[in-house]
Each structure stands twice: as C-alpha cells, then as structure tokens.
# Entry
Amino acid sequence: MSLSCKKQTNKPSLPESFVYLDEINPRIITNLRYLTKENFMNQKVIGYEANRVILTKQSAIALNEAWKEFNSRGFNIVIYDAFRPTRAVQNFVSWAEDKNANQINKPSYFPYIDHDKTFDEGYIANRSGHSRGSTIDLTIINSDKSLQNVVRINRTLSDGRQILFLDDNTLDMGSSFDLFDKASNTLSNLVNETAHQNRLLLKNVMEKNGFVNYELEWWHYTLKNEPFPDTYFDFQIK
# Structure
C-alpha cells in the first residue's frame, strides 16, 4: 500500500453529508492501518477497500482548519483511521470473542492484556463512534519528513515495563497508535516529557478547532458537534 497523500481520481458515491477528505485537502497523509496487516488483528479488516479517508463534511472542514495551524507550525497530519463501517466493528468484536484469534501482533499492540479483555479496558466497543463519521485517529509529522514503514523499537516506560514503539517517522508520542495500554492515555505519566508535550500540541490544536479527545487514546478525536450523534453507518471504504 502506498503511503502517498496524492489525490485519487475515482469518485464512488457516498451518503449525503459525507466527503472524501482528499477532495478537501489532498496534502493530508492517509495511512489506514486497517486496510493492512499492521494492526492489532494482523489482518485486513472487513469494510476497508481503499486507502481513502471518509468523514462527515463538517468534520472534514474542521480538520482542514486544524491542518492549517499544524502546517503553519511545520507539521502535516497523518490519519490512521476515520469513518469505520459497522461491519468492521463487528469484525473487531468477532476477533475479541474468538478463543483462537490471530494474536501474532500481541507484542506490538496489547502486550499486557488478553485479547478478550479489550472490551473491559475500553479499547474495543460493540458500537464505535468512528461509524458516525466524525471521529478520527491521527497524529502529526514534520512537514519535511515522509511517512515510512513501521520499524519496531524496544522502549522502557517510566514504570519499568517494556513496549514496542512502532516508529513510522511521525512525531514521537511515547507510545504508538492502537497500543492497548495505559501508556496511551493522553495524559499518561508513563511517557517522557517530550512525548507529553507532543501529545499536548496535538490536543490543543485539535480542541481549538472543535474536536474532543478520548482520554484513553492520545490519537482519538471526535467533532464536538458531530452531525450524526446517534446514527451508525455501514458502507464500505472504497
């Protein structure tokens, strides 16, 4: 899968009020991890057929405003996930309930919890805000750098535990996207001061532009006044 942010030309139809982000800002980098095996399930997730970000129009416009501020500070946005079909959420649920589930990526994504405990810990839910179309998993990267394939690096948290840091050349947030651990809590004291400040930079700019952070995950933001607060969609990403 290409890590390019180049605008795509094909235009599959979307439900009303949804847009492809690359039609608003093609410079934002898209790296949908659930389209690949680089995720906690170690498999492509049902419903992901293209490396394109889909969002409600309101959240896409707000994100573009956040991008303008990041860009003025020398950063670009990298998106790991945005709209998530409900069929993908069910794929997560089935994996968590399967005693024989693929756990090859356990050391990278859930080293200290059992895969069937991801519900109890709040990392997987039966219904995901992503399916409402205004939630984004993202980070930032220096504008003069390019996204790279993940390189796993051993890292020691402040409590002495070891994790694998998945370095993809984005700004160091202390832990990686989708690490199911307290180290991923936005204000966690398990990461160093540099990572803490990087998380606050992301948080401050996103909140300034109308998004709310999910406190358990530094990368997870939802538009405060999302247009579909009670509606969950199930169209494919293609």
